[in-house]
Amino acid sequence: MAWIAPTADPYGRNRVWFRIPRAIPDSLDDLKGPDTGRLVLPVTVDWGPPVTGGLDIDNASQLERAYSQIIANGDEQCQIDNLNKDLLIKYWPWLSVEKWRVRPAWEKAFPVLKERRLEQWSH
Q1: Who has greater pLDDT, 10 or 83?
Q2: Can you tell me the distance from the alpha carbon of 116 to that of 36, in angstroms, rounded to the nearest whole number?
């Protein structure tokens, strides 16, 4: 497992999320999450309005919410258990992940994610 180290806010503000280390799995092949169904995330990962029965990953907007929260707030085991490699690659360009540290770190660790994002926005 790799970690995204805490850093200073690029604008000099005191923001807590820049001081929290973030986990990154060793390989996208480690991701064993489902490719259909619902994800019930712990409150430590998704503290937004609760969704009865969990987030439906067959619904693009709910998948994007779930995956963004898992990447931002989940530890390595949460990422492994809930993220699906194929869905992550497919929806990567639309995930709401922090652009200063999280997105660049994941794209450096997994170049296929950057390729997917650039491919999507080059059309």
Answers
A1: 83
A2: 21
